[in-house]
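How it folds:
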Amino acid sequence: MQPHSIDQNEFKDLVRKKWSVSLSMTALMLVIYFGFILLLAFNKHVLAQKIGEHMTLGIPIGLAVILSACVMTGLYVRWANTSYDRSVKSILDHMKG
């Protein structure tokens, strides 16, 4: 049994979608991370503001940066395990015939 050829348009759409999602999430993470670093470098008195008796504003903002990375990773994994994997399976099923 001869395998079918790959659907070029479907494969290109899959690659385009993967790059789009990956680059969007990477850009967002870079903005968050470097935004925090630039704030720390050029306006550190904002992060040094006390928001309680023993805590500064920098601690929750730093935790938010870390949590945003975890959330974005989870969103990417969810997207990859559902939409991306479904598209890959569709292409493979089409090739098998």
